[in-house]
Specification:
Blueprint (H helix, E strand, L loop, with lengths): L7 E4 L5 E4 L5 E6 L4 H17 L4 E6 L2 H11 L5 E3 L4 H6 L3 E2 L1 E5 L5 E6 L1 E2 H15 L14 E2 L2 E2 L5 H10 L18 H7 L13 H8 L9 E5 L4 E4 H11 L6 H11 L6 H6 L5 E7 L2 H4 L14 H16 L22 E3 L10 H4 L8 E15 L6 H13 L11 E7 L1 H7 L7 H11 L2 E2 L15 H5 L3 H4 L2 E2 L8 E5 L7 E9 L8 E4 L3
Parallel strand pairs: 3-4, 4-5, 14-15, 17-20
Antiparallel strand pairs: 1-2, 3-7, 6-11, 7-8, 9-10, 12-13, 14-16, 16-21, 16-22, 17-21, 18-19
Helix pairs in contact: 5-7, 7-8, 8-9, 8-12, 9-12, 14-16
Length: 528
């Protein structure tokens, strides 16, 4: 250290408080009981105290309360042996290896620092202190000591201890309000009672857990990522990290959650409308690019269901941000008639390697090597599309089209609504069994098999939905016979590949209103 060392006030075994700095030269040493090299150095520290204790302060700090007692009894210390079992002083002094020894002038600035044990270095320290104090060297049988012994990692660097200390430090990145909970309170029940939960148990967002989560992104904790509807509340990286902890994310998932928050908080996505509609819409996230493998996402067997921590918790973290920061709680702005289980979570990656087509993010203008999350506003799904009999490509494409015909209601057509079609590998194999089968061809096939004459949209005794009888009465037969496609544009049909090799079951997510009056799907590059 080239600046004065951090001050401390610690107690010894007798309960006496010792303070640093002392206005005298000081030898400060940090040791722990389960370190062989610390035990090797302990008699040397005692010898230093006996040699110079009248002219300098020799203070030894132990890193575990139980181990401190053992060390003191084992080595018969008469030197001041102080309790740093909380490791706060060790953290403040910022070393890596014990024993860590500092020879410090009366001005508080370090003259010499040693970590571990190299005999020549400790002998040089002995000579230096003796010269500085104009005293005789300590009485030590140096020839009986080994040339070198490695030190041990300081206890304050243990992950759980270090993260807690970092969270409590004056320069901690944590700025969120801290909530004190009585020791007798049940933390899980407390979080339910406070309304933080989506109805499922949460992981308590302790400061040390949030610190670990923040390590998953290079972004500064207080960077504002977005303004979250419906309350239009600014959300920082730290607040996203807190909700990611509660959702059960690992730190490496955090960049995906951040990008997802950026995507849904755009004007195009219209998260306010998605939340408030009585139709029960919710974001569905599709992840593309290298990050899928990097964080262990599941794109194969059971990709749309439980079992994958990454899939489940990333989607849940986004929902908790919208709930806890944006204020989108059921019964408030969220007025969903039935709601849907995707409001808990829905996130999955595309199996790009099993697809004959450009992956979703490349279609949307990104590079293949980019990692990207795309958010869709969906109202229902995944709805299974079953076909175990088709052998021809157009037959298979026809089945997928008919599976989409029921969106909202089969009578409703020319829809300005997104559909997200998830094609399973066996259905992909059928589509490509006679050669290349492009996404454009599949979209055309879907539109063709779902095209019906307008008269089938007219309300009747079976269903009052669709074109009213009064409107139909004003139309000519030619108008009523006009073919009408299911979707107003092929662009509303989004296609990805996922699922296991076995099983001829594809699926579809049904969208909400698409366009300026509804929600437009948004993609964001994931930075990590």
């Amino acid at each position: 250290m080239t600046v004065p060392c951090p001050p401390f006030a610690l107690t010894d075994r007798a309960g006496q408080t010792r303070r640093f700095p002392t206005a005298r030269p000081s030898l400060i040493a940090f040791i722990k009981e389960d370190c062989h090299t610390c035990n090797l150095a302990a008699p040397l520290l005692q010898a230093f105290h006996l040699a110079w204790g009248e002219a300098a302060d020799v203070l030894v700090l132990g890193q575990s309360s139980e181990g401190n007692d053992i060390l003191q009894d084992r080595h018969g210390f008469t030197l001041p042996f102080l309790d740093d079992s909380a490791c706060k002083t060790s953290f403040a002094w910022d070393f890596e290896i014990v024993p860590a020894v500092y020879w410090i002038g009366a001005d508080g600035v370090v003259k010499t620092k040693l970590e571990g044990f190299v005999r020549e270095e400790w002998q040089a320290l002995d000579r230096q202190i003796a010269a500085d104090l104009d005293a005789a060297p300590a009485v030590i049988a140096w020839a009986d000591l080994p040339d070198w012994r490695p030190g041990c990692g300081s206890k304050h660097l243990d992950p759980e201890i270090h993260d807690k200390l970092q969270a409590e430090a004056d320069d901690s990145p944590i700025r969120a309000r801290r909530i004190e909970i009585a020791t007798a309170d049940d933390i899980a029940e407390f979080m339910f009672d406070q309304g933080f939960s989506d109805g499922l148990p949460l992981i308590p967002p302790t400061a040390e857990r949030v610190i670990r989560m923040l390590a998953g992104t290079p972004r500064a904790p207080q960077d504002i990522v977005a303004v979250v509807p419906p309350n239009m509340a600014p959300v920082t990286v730290e607040k996203i990290a807190i909700n990611a902890v509660m959702a059960g994310c690992k730190p490496e998932y955090l960049p995906v959650v951040i990008a997802a928050v950026e995507a849904v908080c755009t004007d195009e996505f219209n998260m306010h409308g998605v939340t408030a509609t009585t139709m029960g819409a919710s974001p569905v996230l599709v992840v593309n690019g290298p990050i899928r493998e990097r964080i262990g996402m599941n794109m194969r067997l059971g990709a749309l269901g439980p079992g994958s921590r990454a899939n489940a918790t990333i989607g849940r973290a986004l929902r908790l941000v919208v709930r806890n920061v944006g204020g989108a709680q059921p019964g408030g702005v969220d007025r969903s008639t039935l709601s849907n289980p995707m409001k808990f979570t829905m996130c999955f990656p595309e199996w790009e390697e099993g697809s004959p087509w450009d992956p979703l993010h490349v279609e949307r203008g990104f590079k293949a090597e980019d990692s990207v999350v795309t958010a869709f506003a969906m109202t229902s799904g995944p709805v299974q599309i079953v076909d175990q009999e088709s052998r021809g490509p157009d037959q298979m494409g026809g089945t997928l089209g008919l599976g989409l015909e029921s969106m909202f209601l089969s009578k409703i057509r020319r829809m300005h609504t997104d559909a997200l079609l998830v094609v399973c590998p066996e259905h992909v194999a059928t589509l490509t069994s006679e050669g290349p089968y492009s996404k454009a061809r599949l979209r055309e096939r879907i539109q063709a098999v779902t095209t019906r004459p307008m008269r089938e949209m007219v309300a009747n005794e079976i269903s009052g939905a669709g074109i009213t009888q009064a409107m139909a009465a004003k139309m000519t037969d030619a108008q009523l016979d006009t073919p009408v496609s299911k979707f107003a544009s092929d662009a509303y049909i989004h296609i990805v590949v996922a699922g296991s090799d076995a099983g001829k079951f594809s699926a579809a997510f049904h969208g909400w209103v698409t366009g300026p009056m509804g929600s437009i799907s948004v993609s964001r590059k994931i930075e990590y």
